[in-house]
Here is the input.
Amino acid sequence: KSSILMRKLVYEREVFSGITAENYALKDPGLFVIYGSPVNGMDVEKAEQELDRILIELKDLITEEDIEVAKNKALTDFIFGQESVKNVGFSLGEFEILDRAECINLFPEKIMKIQLEDIKMAIDQYLVRKTRNVAILKVKK
Here is the structure.
């Protein structure tokens, strides 16, 4: 609820009823997916234009506080996600596929090292229009 996409596109501009973003490194290294559901009556193309506008502005919108909130959420999710044997096994398998299982012990430290400039560089590298694919799913009537 605290993400820039949620704040700007759901609460302030009321373009989407919900929006989320995820990294799919296991399925496709470098794949970053943004899902959004436009509010009823919102033209899909207009919703996409609003998303584009926010992605262009993102480097100027993101703050140190946003980074800290995201890091704390990532750490909390990671730590509480290790409360069952099943989840530990899943995490170890995920780390083994991505690099090696021992990296699970380095994850919290790596998260804490992330800085605002790292995020801005990633925005420049990955959130560019020319490499984007858009899928619009419509309800069959």
